[in-house]
Design a protein that fits this description.
It is built from 22 helices and 16 strands. By secondary structure, it is an alpha/beta fold. It folds into three domains: 2-23 and 145-249, Phosphohistidine domain (Glucose Oxidase, domain 1); 38-139, Orthogonal Bundle (Enzyme I, Chain A, domain 2), CATH 1.10.274.10; 262-536, Phosphoenolpyruvate-binding domains (TIM Barrel). Helix 11 (277-285) links the parallel strand 9 (269-274) and strand 10. It binds phosphoenolpyruvate (PEP) and magnesium ion. Phosphoenolpyruvate (PEP) binds next to strand 10 and helix 19. Phosphoenolpyruvate binds at residues 293, 295, 333, 428, 450-453, 500-501.
Length: 551
C-alpha cells in the first residue's frame, strides 16, 4: 500500500483498477509515412484538417456548453493562418504533411509552455498538441481512440488531453490521476463538468508501476492510495456507499428499499462482493440481499495466519455483519496475482498455473482448516462455500473428499458444526462451463459465474494487460454461449446460479446478463444502487435474445 499526494481538480471518492495511457500510446515521434510531392502533401493536409474539424465538431455536439468551447478552440487552431503558413513552408521544402504538422505543433506548444507569466495561455499547449495529434493520426491512418475499455477504470497518464476523455464512452472513466497537469487544463474542466473525481500532480513515481493495479482515489482529500490494504478498502467502500445513499435519498421510497422486480415483473436478486465485516455492513445498508462472494483470501493476505480458530472468528464476524442474510464464502484463491510469502507459494503460481482450488488441493492441511472453520461458523447463520478455479469434476470430487474428512474430524472432536452447508463452484474456466451439468451430477449445489476470470480465460487476455484489453470482452458472443450453457445446466439441474465480477457492476452489462437468463447478480457494494436502478427499468425478456453480433 502506498499513498500519493496530489492536487484535487474534481472532488469525489472512487475505488477501481488503473488503466495507464502510456507515453508509447501517444508516441509522437513514429511518423512512418513516406512523403509524396508537395502538392499532394498539401492536399492530404487540407483533407486531414477537414476530417479533424468534423470530428471536433461532433465532439462539441456531444459536449455541454462549458466543454464545447474547448473543441471550438482546437478547431480554430487548425485554421490559424500563421500556424498553417509555417506548416506549408515545411511541406514546400519537401517535408511530409504529418511531420510538418508535428514540428510546428510541437514548437507552438513549447512556446506556450514557456509563457510562465500567462497561466491561461501556458495551459493551452495541451490543446495544440491534442489538435495537431488528431491531424497527424488521420494522416498516418492511426486510430483516434487511444483506449478501448471493457470495464470502468481510473485513467492514469502524465497529462490528459480533452479528446482522451471524449474518445472513451461515458461511464467508463471512474476517475483520473495525472502525474502532471493543472486544475485549469481543459481536461480538468471536462472532468469537473462530468463529475469525474480527478487528481493532478501526483508525481512520476505513481505512473511507473500503477497499470492494472487497484487504487483508491480520494479526490476529496487530494490523495490516492495504490494497492490499498483490506482495512483501507473497507473504509473507502463504506464512505462510497454512504455517499451514494445520500445522493439517492430524495426519492419517495429510497432505491435500496424498493422491491427487486424488473419492469415486466420478473424478480431478481442483488448481492455484494465483499472482503470482510466492514464492507458487508455497508452492502447490507445499500440493500444487498446478502453476500454473493466473500473473497476470504484478503483476510490472510495482510498476515499469514491459517489458524482454524482465528478463521472461525472471522467468518462469524462476517455472518453477524450480514444480519441473517446469506453469505457465500469463496475458499482461498491464492496463486497468480494473490500470493503469500510462505504458504501456497507455487513455482507455477501464474494465471494458468496453480491457482484457487488447485493450490488448496496441494495444501490439504490448510484447506481442511478453512473448511472446518467455515462449517463451524455455519451454525451461526446462513452460509455457503464456493470453490474457485475448478476445472473439472476430478477437482470437485477431490475437494469433496477433503470435506468428508473434515466432517469426520469435527465429529471426532465433538465440535458443533453445520454438516449440510451447501457447496458450489465458481465458473471461471470455459472447461467448467462446457461441462457444467457434470458437476451437478456429482453433487454441486450452486454455481457462481466469475466474469473477471471467465472473460480472461475465454479470450486468452490477461485481466491486467492493457495491450490485450480489446480482447477482454465480458459480454462477447463467446461469453454469451458459455453463460447460457451454465444457466441452462443450472435450470435443468434445479440449482441456483449467481453472476459476479467487475463487469456485473456496470449497469449495461448487468442488463445484458439479465437478458441471458440470470436473475442473481453480485457486485461491488458501491455499484448496487446504480445497477438496481437499471434492472428496475429493464425487461427480463424471458424468451431470450440471440447472442450479440460482435465478438
Ligand atoms: C471473478 O473472477 O470474476 C471474481 C469475482 O474473482 P476475482 O476477481 O477475485 O478473481
Ligand atoms: Mg476470480
Amino acid at each position: 500500500m502506498k499513498k500519493y499526494q496530489g492536487v484535487s481538480v474534481s472532488s469525489g471518492l472512487v475505488l477501481g483498477q488503473v488503466s495507464l495511457i502510456s507515453k508509447s500510446n501517444r508516441d509522437r515521434t513514429s511518423i512512418n509515412r513516406n512523403p509524396q510531392n508537395p502538392e499532394k502533401e498539401m492536399q492530404l493536409l487540407e483533407d486531414a484538417i477537414r476530417t479533424a474539424q468534423s470530428e471536433l465538431e461532433s465532439m462539441a455536439n456531444r459536449a455541454d456548453a462549458s466543454e464545447q468551447a474547448i473543441f471550438w478552440f482546437q478547431s480554430m487552431l487548425l485554421e490559424d493562418e500563421s500556424f498553417l503558413n509555417e506548416v506549408h513552408s515545411y511541406i514546400q521544402a519537401g517535408t511530409g504533411a504529418a511531420e510538418a504538422m508535428n514540428r510546428v505543433g510541437q514548437r507552438y506548444a513549447d512556446k506556450l509552455l514557456a509563457m510562465t507569466d500567462n497561466t491561461y495561455l501556458r495551459l493551452r499547449n495541451v490543446d495544440i498538441l491534442d489538435a495537431t495529434q488528431r491531424v497527424i493520426n488521420i494522416l498516418c491512418d492511426r486510430p483516434r481512440m487511444r483506449l478501448t475499455l471493457d470495464h470502468p477504470v481510473i485513467l492514469a497518464a502524465d497529462q490528459l488531453m480533452p479528446s482522451d476523455l471524449f474518445s472513451i464512452p461515458a461511464g467508463m472513466i471512474l476517475g483520473i490521476i495525472t502525474s502532471e497537469g493543472s486544475a485549469l487544463s481543459h481536461a480538468a474542466i471536462i472532468a469537473r463538468a462530468r463529475k469525474i473525481p480527478s487528481l493532478v500532480q501526483v508525481g512520476r513515481d505513481f505512473l511507473d508501476d500503477c497499470d492494472g493495479r487497484i487504487v483508491v482515489l480520494d479526490a476529496d482529500e487530494g490523495v490516492c492510495i495504490l494497492d490499498p490494504d483490506a482495512d483501507t478498502r473497507q473504509q473507502m467502500v463504506a464512505r462510497i456507499c454512504a455517499g451514494q445513499r445520500e445522493e439517492e435519498g430524495n426519492l419517495e421510497t429510497p432505491l435500496q428499499d424498493m422491491p427487486c422486480t424488473t419492469r415486466d415483473g420478473t424478480p431478481f436478486e442483488l448481492l455484494a462482493n465483499c472482503f470482510g465485516p466492514e464492507d458487508i455492513d455497508s452492502a447490507i445498508q445499500s440493500g444487498a440481499a446478502g453476500v454473493g462472494l466473500l473473497r476470504s483470501d484478503y483476510q490472510i493476505l495482510a498476515g499469514d495466519t491459517f489458524d482454524e480458530q482465528e478463521q472461525y472468528f472471522y467468518y462469524t464476524a462476517c455472518i453477524a455483519a450480514a444480519g441473517g442474510k446469506p453469505i457465500t464464502v469463496r475458499t482461498f484463491d491464492f496463486g497468480s496475482d494473490r500470493t503469500l510469502s510462505n504458504v501456497y507459494r507455487g513455482d507455477q503460481s501464474a494465471h494458468l498455473g496453480m491457482r484457487g482450488i488447485r493450490s488448496s488441493l496441494r495444501s490439504p492441511r490448510n484447506f481442511e482448516a478453512q473448511i472446518r472453520a467455515l462449517m463451524r461458523a455455519g451454525t451461526r447463520g446462513p452460509l455457503r462455500i464456493v470453490f474457485p478455479m475448478v476445472t473439472n469434476v476430478e477437482d470437485w470430487d477431490a475437494a469433496m473428499r477433503l470435506v468428508a474428512h473434515c466432517r469426520q474430524n469435527l465429529d471426532e472432536r465433538g465440535v458443533p458444526y453445520k454438516s449440510d452447508v451447501p457447496f458450489g463452484i465458481m465458473l471461471s474456466i470455459p472447461a467448467a462451463c462446457l461441462t457444467a451439468d457434470d458437476f451437478i451430477r456429482h453433487g454441486c449445489q450452486f454455481f457462481v459465474i466469475g466474469t473477471n476470470d471467465l472473460t480472461q480465460y475465454t479470450h486468452a487476455a490477461g485481466r491486467e494487460i492493457t495491450s490485450a484489453e480489446r480482447y477482454f470482452q465480458p459480454t462477447s458472443k463467446a461469453m454469451y454461449r458459455l453463460i447460457r450453457m451454465t444457466v441452462d445446466a443450472a435450470e435443468n439441474g434445479h440449482i441456483p446460479v449467481t453472476i459476479c465480477g467487475l463487469a456485473v457492476g456496470d449497469s449495461s452489462n448487468a442488463v445484458q446478463y439479465l437478458h441471458m437468463g440470470l436473475r442473481s447478480f453480485s457486485m461491488g457494494p458501491q455499484n448496487l444502487l446504480s445497477v438496481k436502478k437499471a434492472l428496475l427499468e429493464s425487461e427480463a425478456r424471458p424468451d431470450r435474445e440471440g447472442p450479440p453480433e460482435q465478438g
